Sequence to fold (434 residues):
Amino acid sequence: MSSQFAASPFDAWLVDDPEVSRLLGREAERQSTTLQLIASENFTSPAVLAASGSILTNKYAEGYPGRRYYGGNQVVDEVENLARDRLTALFGAEHANVQPHAGANANLAVYQALLDPGDTILAMRLDHGGHLTHGSPASITSKVWRFVSYGVSPASGDPDKPGEIIDFDQVADVARRERPKLIVAGSTAYSRIIDPLPFREIADSVGALFMFDAAHPAGLIAGGAHPSPVGVADVVTLTTHKTLRGPRGGAILSTAELAKAVDSAVFPGLQGGPLEHVIAAKAVAFAEASRSEFRTYAAQVVANAGALGAALAEAGFRLVSGGTENHQVLLDLRTFDAELTGKVAQEVLDRAGITCNRNTIPDDQRSPFITSGLRLGSAALTTTGMGRPEMEVIGALIGRTLQHRDDEAELGRVRAEVRELCLGFPPYPTLAGA
Ligand code: DSN
Fold:
């Protein structure tokens, strides 16, 4: 492939499959000329792309280093040990499992490791920002375990104390009443720091174990922008592809005491052969996240989300919880336009080259498919080098797009401005033209 936009360091090797090559080329162009504001996405480094596209995909390695069910794993063992060592060092953890194929698998494995079927788990309400694996009726988690939930405090309308933050009185009350065996902290749509300490205290007060789902803030924790739950929680789960900026996948950190239970729950409990090519890419990402530049990156992600949120507030949107302390901005669209749903906003923004996702807001009257909110994230655009000035431009562009959503000519003008902006911040400058 010879294009201005490269999809991987190995594009040229796809000449024998022009159909896939063309599709990858189109996706490379999409990622390079539209604004990536999905809060759970990022741009990995070319080194991460190279490792995840490597020959390690050929190897079966069921088991763990030194204890595999297949021969020929001498090198693979070194790769997985390197990934585990780098991850434990990055977070100061006693034990790491780098095999989970996704964050959902990591969570499921922890439940399996620590609980019996039917045990009670206390986690965040889905419509207040919790994840599917925190007890959605659609998830297998709720069929195996009994979930009870906590949420955020009501919106107050007072700009100095806006509310919509985790209600620890409620966490403690439900914990006392329901006596969960496990308390889960963590969310997918919540723009504030999650302090692990009050959760620990509540868990101790009712004799519960404590799991921190760090899928979203893992990179902010690694980069020192958020407090670390490691050493506070019994188990920390994470994804490697969001703010941590690695390949798509999950990982689990635990105390040494829980290591065996966690490892057995991942394999053979839940998964078969580990994706060693992805584990190699995780190792690359963990090394990248341990460098001082990554601390600068994490701080900039938070600063950029703040700048984007301020620009959106200026454009007339209400920010859920009144602001942001992480990589996310959760918008309540109703103050901007009571008729505008998250679904329509997402679709119109997509046409203008602005990629984000609709999201419920606390106590949303609309369904999760329609929603009254939008979730935006700053992690990917920060990787491209964008800063405050670009966030201000993007906030204004979002306002303009949604204001003129029925005006195709205006959407076309925004699309052109978005393309121009993105071309100044290529995600893969060293691969372009490959
Ligand atoms: N898909 C993830 C997110 O967007 O937050 C959660 O699984």
Remarks:
- The first helix runs from residue 18 to 33.
- The pocket of D-serine is lined by residues 40, 131, 188 (CB under 6 Å).
